[in-house]
Amino acid sequence: MQQKKIDSTQKIPLCCYSQLSSTNLTARSLVAQGFNLPFAVRADEQTAGRGQWGRVWQSDRGGLYLSLAVALDLTLEEVFYLTLISSWGVAEIFNRKAIPVKLKWPNDLLLDGLKLGGIKIETGSTQTKVTQVIIGIGINWQNETPLNGINLVAYPSIESLDQLTEMTLDGLVLGIETYSSLQMKGSLPFYLKYCCSIGKAVEINGQMATVVGVDEKGKLVVLLSSPGARCEISCSPGMISLGYY
Ligand code: BTN
User: Fold this and answer.
1) In this structure, what DSSP letter does residue 219 have?
2) Which of 4, 72, 144, 185 has the most CB atoms in a 10 Å sphere around its CB?
């Protein structure tokens, strides 16, 4: 990442909507119309919320559905890592408020081992270089959650969606700034501090493996051990599924 066009001391303009199909989609269309970056879009509910890997993100009222549009200069590899470090930034802000959010690789925010939220970055580009990035984040606040989900009703210190929005934007900006100044190598230890995927047992192509780390590109490192052979491999998200346990 070469340039830093986001200033944490500056308030990010926020466009609020009652209902959208997807805040990521609206943010992309506003970028295309030439809106000044950075800006954020929030909706009270989404009718077609987009999750990772083509999944639907259930988006009933009471949850936070937010997209931050920023100007950055990234390779596609760096965009993937930005997902990790953005989720770290949000986890860090929650932990500073005594809400013990952890991270499940690559982009899940966990509370008590259950999914509190997730991040989906969209670039709208298949070029090798990306200059505009939409960081979409959904967090369960008071909405009902799907199986394996959790919301924040046990944490009344978060009194409003506005407060949650501000914390979340602070977290995303913290992630971007940390990455801008420390790059992947320097910022990875921050991510690992909250990542609870290390040590988990996983299955890859029918073979048992153990998660042993995250590499400097943000890929998961697993140790395959079969009788007489041990080897470490780096996995992309599509290769592996980590359950909630
Ligand atoms: C995940 O699958 O874990 C990521 C979910 C990201 C959902 C958010 S909600 C706001 C933004 N708009 C979308 O359509 N998706 C993201």
Assistant:
1) P
2) 72
Side chain identity at residue 107, one-letter code: N
Give me the domains of the chain, ranges plus CATH numbers.
2-194 (3.30.930.10), 201-235 (no CATH)
Helices (H), 18-134: 23-32, 76-96
Report the atom number in ligand 1 closest to the C-alpha of 107: 3
Q: Distance between CA 69 and CA 207 in Å, rounded?
A: 40
| pTM for the structure as a whole | 0.92
SS3 106: coil
Atom of ligand 1 nearest to the CA of 118: 3
Residues whose CB is less than 8 angstroms from the CB of residue 236 and which lie 6 or more positions away in sequence, other chains included: 219
User: 153-174, pLDDT tens digit by residue?
Assistant: 999 999 999 999 999 999 999 9
Dihedral pair phi/psi, residue 224, rounded to 5°: -90, 125
Cα 123 from Cα 76, distance rounded (Å)? 9
Rounded alpha-carbon distances, angstroms, from residue 64 to 140, 152, 197: 6, 11, 25
Distances from the Cα of 27 to the Cαs of 10, 17, 66, 89, in angstroms?
Answer: 19, 12, 9, 21
Under 8 Å between Cβ of 107 and 87: yes
40 sits in which H/E element = strand 39-46
- Token pair, residue 92, equals 């860090």
